[in-house]
User: Fold this.
Amino acid sequence: MLIVQKFGGTSVGDLERIQNVANRVSETRKAGNDVVVVVSAMSGETNKLVAYAEHFSATPERGEVDMLLSSGERVTAALLAIALNEMGHAAVSMSGRRAGIVTDNLHTKARIEEIDPSAMHKAIKEGKIIVVAGFQGVSLDGNVTTLGRGGSDLSAVAIAGAIGADLCEIYTDVSGIYTTDPRIEPKAKKLDRISYDEMLELASLGAKVLQNRSVELAKKLNVNLVTRTSFSNEEGTLITKEENIMEKPLVSGIALDKNQARVSLFAVKDRTGIASEIFNKLAQSSVNIDMIIQNVAHDGSANIDFTVPVSDLTDAKAVVDGFIQSGDIKGASYDEKICKVSIVGVGMKSHTGVAAKAFTTMATENINITMISTSEIKVSMVIAEKYAELAVRSLHDAYELDK
Amino acid sequence: MLIVQKFGGTSVGDLERIQNVANRVSETRKAGNDVVVVVSAMSGETNKLVAYAEHFSATPERGEVDMLLSSGERVTAALLAIALNEMGHAAVSMSGRRAGIVTDNLHTKARIEEIDPSAMHKAIKEGKIIVVAGFQGVSLDGNVTTLGRGGSDLSAVAIAGAIGADLCEIYTDVSGIYTTDPRIEPKAKKLDRISYDEMLELASLGAKVLQNRSVELAKKLNVNLVTRTSFSNEEGTLITKEENIMEKPLVSGIALDKNQARVSLFAVKDRTGIASEIFNKLAQSSVNIDMIIQNVAHDGSANIDFTVPVSDLTDAKAVVDGFIQSGDIKGASYDEKICKVSIVGVGMKSHTGVAAKAFTTMATENINITMISTSEIKVSMVIAEKYAELAVRSLHDAYELDK
Assistant:
């Protein structure tokens, strides 16, 4: 097999851990696989460099920040290659540039435009283990760029796609994706497999493991993604296309998002296009809208409720205040003490009654549902924040996710 | 003027010092000059990375060492560019690759093959201060290389040559080149100007400031080199071509080399080519020969004396033992308690009596001279090591170098 293995900052946090990573890569190699390793900077290193930059400027030039930060991954890549060579493997490190990773020129948050895999193919053909410095690429005009938060994961997924790897393993300090947050429900079970779409909907469960843009890229490039821990040999969770999942569970997991606030607009004027105007203005202020509910009153005016991330609430209020002043809205209220509980599963597509069971479960626990939204593979409910953990545990039980 | 300024590891040893360097570059810029800065890694950084590599392997692969070490200069270059931008200058950092520095592929001790100055010319034309990561380049096959000890100085000199800079200033913690080592002769004076050839002969005086290969490159590229300190505004020493030095001093400086040993071969057989055989064998064992004296005895056999660096003495002994066993030499003796004192000055070319004065001075002090060698601009004498300081001070006085 051709396997890409990505090790994050904590997995390469010190020299001992880099040796552990070398041992694991060595085992994978000895089992007869071709291996491309993608590494992050040693944990703490990037923060140290950012602090250095901020010593000189509150707004350091982004191109220089990229020059600065990209050095951290190069160090780890070279050290791991040295360790692997010492163990008798032929290993070679590559910067993002050497690995052929071409990005746009949006410094500090560049997007991968294309990968020229020829240098990697050549090295693999020569029997070498490749160690790529993650998180970085080179712009078309030849400058070093970095990919922003979660960038090394993106490097790994994009490389796996470009070289046609059979597997892309993302190693972190978490052993995989669970049916729900084990800190809330200790009976949560690790999933063996999950589809890309389910993973995207369960973002909050995977937040500490994988960013959505890595999953989206894996889906686009059809890369089989595995999240597992570098601290044991425990098997992880395979994130793959739906067709690869034989037994489609009705519900795969329960996600909880406490980072939402509810905005309620009263007596929105009854004129054509008003809703569109409000949401366009919110979009212009970069406010992310999640769920929306509209109730039309007898007089033709409407109440509109929607949820936004707590961090966007101040911006949302400013927009809403504008409409209140212009008289388009009579008033508004805001509630940060809410949360969103979501039930996700590809099996819902072909089964009925999944949502009904969720509502029944909430009713049994006397939890009031204030908003509902559904998609093909997800049912989301907004409830009072104080019921968050109770709701998750009840739903986990109701769908027998511990079985 | 177009000025290259190079700052070594101690000059950029911490964030405060990097800010000091930014201030100095800023002043140079404000005085109306175009500036290209070349920086080393922050002091301690390279040693740290070497220690990391050695944690994994006693013989780390040289290409990986280059990948590892080249990161240090990139960090300094980016930080200095950030500091300069914050001060209102347009500054841009460049890796060795971006600066167009192409080397052979002898990793960890690469030689600069050529410099493509187009990226630097473009940036200068745009009014930018360029900050180049020193010590590094890129091989023709696209891998990062480093230039070995003193590599950042070489980067600076080569860049100054390639872009036709008026001056190449090398900033260290030493204020310039002195008539002799001030720790031996407190009356030693700093030289305003000195020719390339004198500097090369005075290597021991400049050892802590400049390596000979940088001076040789400066001579070849006709680069005006200045060594000065980054810790004050004191003027340094200009190293330039002889034609630029109006008043040619008879003697510019007195150099002392304690790192020599004397090898004496007795009764070397009288047969054609024997001396050539001995010195060829020594060369094959990488023994550096400095001075040679041969005395032919009445029976036709000869005594041959020569000096080698102390570090080559073991290798030299092994070669000599071979000739003793074959009967070509009767015996040999070795003396590490010697030193070499040299008087250097371009003025010697056109003046007589310089060597005679040296011999008289030694005689006055009752110092026995055991070997002498002379070149156009240098007189070297081997004496007992215990007289080293006395000889230096006497000669410094005799040639009135404190005046």
User: Anything to note?
Assistant: Residues 2-172 of chain B form a domain with the Carbamate kinase fold (CATH 3.40.1160.10).
